[in-house]
Amino acid sequence: MSELFARRMGTVHRSFIREILKVTADPEIISFAGGLPNPDLFPLESMDRASREVFANIGASALQYSTTEGDAGLRTIIAERYAKRGLSVSPDSILITTGSQQILDIVAKVFLDKGDKVVIERPGYLGAIQAFSIFEPEFVAISLESDGPDLAELEQALQQGAKCFYAVPNFQNPSGVSYSLEKRKAVAKLMDTYDALFIEDDPYGELRFMGEDLPSVYSFREKPGILCGSFSKIAAPGFRIGWVVAESPFYEKLVIAKQASDLHTSTVAQAIMRRYLETNDIESHVGLIKERYGRQRQHMVDMIQQHFPSVVNITEPEGGMFLWAALPEGVSSMDLFDIAIKDKVAFVPGRPFYVDGTGENTFRLNFSNSDEQKIEEGIKRLGSSISTLLD
Ligand code: PMP
């Protein structure tokens, strides 16, 4: 019956990471593979209280259909939080979405025709590659350096007619790389010059545990852009609440695409999130997350320096949830994966993050979801797997 499928599904595969997560379900495996926030830090009691207050205060309307744009109070809080970080946006230019993942789907629906050129970082976020692939664009991969994209490659792609650039400028998934201030400004300028769309995905921006916060690329644009945010990493992903900031006429089209997709994001989830934000200090909660992840990141870096052969290079991210490792050229992280699974430790091989099929020697490590003891043991095991592979 496979002839029943639309042609576009031929180019899309199940998320490689979700497949890996099945292998790592074995409780003896220490997994640095998932991209999960640390569940110890979910605000369980406050959410429990907020949900009871929602039902007591607004009753059945929490269970009713609601507007596509999203809860007005929640959008106002999001705008106020941006204002505190120096970005002025109107609540009317915020659209609540079902996770920020949904934005990638609706953005693709609104902007991508088959064959359109889409610039993406190399490595790039797998969820975006998957969401966009359904619309059959032509990906143009540009190198990601330690301070952001290779600007010459970006300009060349734009000269050759690329329509948009999707990027994660803060603590990127998968590499942990962040754009420098200079590159943020330069990217904004290039996107303005070529009248191209910049899709700025920022679920990790608030999780900076060292260095200085930097303004979004969006804030440097003279022409309209798209800025995506999410409560998944600063509160809890199970709510599936994200948002997109976009001006007219992008905003209206995104609303139409979302309406066609799910009418609106869960009313009750939005009501509870709003109540939580109104009655709790999320900034101090984010502070706790940063403090914990910062320690875990430092421990992972220290352990890698002790236990990995020195030929392995890593990024040392200033925030977020991931760091990125590179084996010597020509050594395959898939081969390492096979050895590591036998040694009961897991990670995500890098290749699926490269739309051009390179990246064979790279891999991603998650530090948010393991305590320091697990990090120590897991990195020791992985160091020994790497030594076995290189012997
Ligand atoms: N963008 C990036 C870069 C991500 O890493 C993730 C989560 N893995 C998402 C978007 C989706 O997050 P959510 O839908 O939970 O907001």
UniProtKB/TrEMBL annotation:
UniProt-listed PANTHER family: AMINOTRANSFERASE, KYNURENINE_ALPHA-AMINOADIPATE AMINOTRANSFERASE, MITOCHONDRIAL
Lineage: Bacteria, Pseudomonadati, Thermodesulfobacteriota, Desulfovibrionia, Desulfovibrionales
GO BP term (any one): alpha-amino acid metabolic process
Species in which this protein is naturally found: Pseudodesulfovibrio profundus
InterPro entries in UniProt: Aminotransferase_I/II_large (IPR004839), Class-I_PLP-dep_aminotransf (IPR050859), PyrdxlP-dep_Trfase (IPR015424), PyrdxlP-dep_Trfase_major (IPR015421), PyrdxlP-dep_Trfase_small (IPR015422)
Transferase in keyword set: yes
Domain Aminotransferase class I/classII large: 43-382
Family: Belongs to the class-I pyridoxal-phosphate-dependent aminotransferase family.
Top-rank taxon, per record: Bacteria
Name of this chain's protein: Aromatic-amino-acid aminotransferase 1
Cofactor(s) listed in the protein's UniProt record: pyridoxal 5'-phosphate
Keywords: Aminotransferase, Pyridoxal phosphate, Transferase
GO molecular function: pyridoxal phosphate binding; transaminase activity
Pfam family, one: Aminotran_1_2
The UniProt record lists the keyword Transferase: yes
Subunit-structure text: Homodimer.
EC number(s) recorded for this UniProt protein: 2.6.1.57
